[in-house]
Design brief:
The chain is an alpha+beta fold. Helices cover about 55% and strands about 10% of the residues. It has one domain.
Length: about 100
């Protein structure tokens, strides 16, 4: 039974990846990051600078995804305060994927 579940999970992951292979989906994702007032990661790229060449950046990312050459960048770690005075870690990925 576990084998069947793993096959289903593999299919779901494959389907999710397939959804990324459209420029409109990548553009929608960028717009969501922008609307959420996202910030850049360790590469220093800002929303504004990425947006200034949005079409070229999206098409470059799309090429990498289709060619299976995309490599995720390291995530910036910051600590944000909690109500109890402690801090919790938060990972901020880069904008320029």
């Amino acid at each position: 039974m576990e084998y069947v579940m793993n096959q289903e999970w593999k299919f779901k992951l494959h389907s999710v990846y397939g959804q990324l292979l459209f420029d409109r989906k990548l553009t929608q994702s960028f717009e969501q990051v922008k609307a959420n007032k996202g910030t850049g990661g360790i590469d220093g790229e800002s929303i504004e600078s990425y947006e200034s060449n949005l079409h070229e950046n999206i098409m470059s990312l799309l090429e990498k995804l289709k060619a299976n050459t995309y490599q995720a960048q390291p995530v910036k770690r910051v600590y944000i305060p909690k109500k109890n005075g402690k801090k919790r870690p938060l990972g901020i990925p880069t904008i320029l994927l």
